[in-house]
């Protein structure tokens, strides 16, 4: 295919995070074409990506994660009746409030991108959809309305107050003083069920950086482990398929040299997921990892005390909503109507590029090779590929497998509600990983 055709195909990997796929593809093409987007293009791209990521976080919390606490497994708990009335799937009051608020937020994507999913306004040179002065006012009004809902319902407090929480002690004090919002409900559940000790992974956190303006990310890139931040280079990434239903070399290879050849009958394999590694190491990615790498003090306190855990992943996700909406308001203010939003560039006959972005679920990478003016290879590592990696050739399990070790299954076996909490805390998207 022609390299620009990738912008049509890759969003359809997944209808939930299609903007993230589009941004990664646009950045890979931008790298291959050697084009520099104008500031307006970066700002509009950030707004589209952030809108999708925030909407995904809300969907995860209200529709996937919290309904598990309304299950009959917790029927004897003193808090169960109240939580069931609020969060029970389909019947609870929370989803009935969240869904309209999320739908109104997604009008931002309609204005900037024309539609969602599979938005086509994103291009290597920026955004093909310019914003007028009147539309800038509309965008800000959408965000102010959404902020109001968050502050009334999710937090029961100002976004800035949530973003300013800087320690476990501050979070516990806030939980005690601010029990009104749905975040407060989760924090009380986390305390009652000791979710800080549940689902700990290796404690190595990856972010490739995201929300770039003029080449600088709004959330930093790096790998955090044991109190130290190491730089992230995509050249340090390699994938292997020893336990995957894929054909490939026995040694790990960089995605530019990778291939995707299904082998459904391969012996000793147990996953359609490849095994990506950073410098040969297992990493965890996601909202908590982003906030840890970016240096937020509460996120670093969470992992310093408990490592990656169910509690930490959910708090990291809700902390990120507050920080990102504040940033979105600043990006709208910075838009300059009348100035360029996109530039064009010619596709070279021979090129390669990499596009790195943070989707809601974590680090997303697209690696593109162009030969004779057409796509010769295109490899993708999705966030769930990192987190749900099978064992590698050394027998080392991925982040989720490590997080499941030691869980008491009880009579429910693999259907244990604790297993559900751990799996859902990663907000998996196996669709992206398999496709």
Mean pLDDT: 95
Return the structural class: alpha+beta
Could you spell the SSE succession in H and E letters? HHHHHHEEHHHHEEEEEEEHHHEEEHHHH
Helix content: 40-55%
- What characteristic shape results from the CA principal axes? globular
| CA distance, first residue to last residue | 18 Å
Please summarize the sheet with the most strands.
3 strands, antiparallel
Radius of gyration: 21 Å
Adjacency order of strands in the biggest sheet: 3-4-5
Low-confidence parts lasting 5 or more residues at pLDDT below 50?
A: none
Number of helices: 17
Strand content: 15-25%
Number of distinct beta strands = 12
Report on this structure.
The protein is built from 17 helices and twelve strands. It has helices at 6-9, 18-33, 39-65, 80-87, 93-105, 107-113, 133-154, 159-163, 168-177, 182-193, 287-294, 297-306, 310-334, 383-387, 399-404, 417-425, 430-434; strands at residues 122-123, 126-127, 204-213, 216-225, 228-230, 237-240, 246-247, 261-262, 275-278, 351-359, 362-371, 374-381. A three-stranded antiparallel sheet has the order 3-4-5. The chain has a three-stranded antiparallel sheet with strand order 10-11-12. It starts with 5 loop residues before the first helix and ends with a helix. The mean pLDDT is 95.
């Amino acid at each position: 295919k022609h390299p620009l055709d990738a912008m049509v195909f890759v969003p359809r990997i997944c209808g939930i995070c299609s903007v993230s796929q589009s941004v990664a593809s646009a950045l890979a093409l931008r790298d291959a074409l050697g084009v520099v987007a104008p500031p307006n293009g970066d700002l509009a791209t950030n707004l589209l990506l952030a809108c999708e990521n925030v909407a995904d976080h809300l969907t995860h919390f209200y529709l996937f994660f919290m309904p598990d606490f309304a299950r009959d497994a917790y029927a004897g708990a003193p808090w169960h009746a109240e939580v069931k009335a609020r969060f029970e799937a389909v019947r609870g009051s929370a989803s009935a409030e969240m869904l309209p608020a999320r739908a109104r937020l997604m009008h931002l994507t309609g204005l900037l991108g024309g539609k969602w999913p599979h938005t086509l306004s994103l291009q290597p040179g920026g955004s093909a959809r310019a914003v007028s002065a009147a539309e800038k006012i509309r965008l800000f009004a959408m965000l102010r309305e959404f902020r109001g809902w968050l502050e009334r319902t999710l937090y029961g407090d100002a976004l800035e107050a949530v973003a300013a929480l800087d320690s476990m002690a501050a979070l516990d004090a806030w939980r005690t003083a601010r029990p009104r919002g749905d975040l407060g409900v989760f924090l009380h559940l986390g305390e009652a069920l000791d979710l800080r000790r549940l689902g700990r992974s290796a404690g190595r956190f990856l972010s490739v950086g995201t929300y770039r303006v003029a080449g600088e990310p709004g959330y930093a890139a790096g790998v955090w482990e044991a109190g130290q931040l190491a730089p992230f280079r995509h050249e340090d990434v390699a994938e292997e398929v020893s336990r995957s239903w894929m054909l490939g070399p026995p040694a790990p290879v960089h995605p530019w040299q990778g291939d995707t050849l299904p082998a459904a009958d391969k012996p000793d394999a147990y996953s359609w997921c490849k095994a990506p590694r950073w410098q040969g190491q297992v990493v965890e990615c996601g909202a908590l990892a982003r906030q840890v790498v970016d240096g937020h003090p509460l996120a670093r306190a969470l992992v310093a005390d408990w490592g990656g855990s169910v509690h930490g992943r959910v708090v990291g996700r809700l902390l990120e909503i507050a920080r990102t909406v504040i940033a979105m308001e600043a990006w709208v203010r910075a838009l300059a109507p009348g100035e360029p939003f996109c530039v064009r560039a010619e596709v070279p006959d021979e090129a390669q590029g990499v596009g790195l972005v943070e989707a809601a679920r974590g680090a997303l990478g697209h690696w593109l090779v162009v030969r004779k003016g057409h796509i010769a290879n295109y490899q993708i590592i999705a966030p769930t590929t990192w987190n749900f990696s099978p064992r590698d050739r050394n027998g080392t399990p991925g982040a989720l497998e490590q997080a499941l070790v030691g869980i008491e299954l009880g009579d429910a076996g693999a259907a244990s509600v604790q297993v559900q909490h751990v799996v859902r805390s990663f907000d998996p998207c196996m669709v992206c990983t398999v496709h």
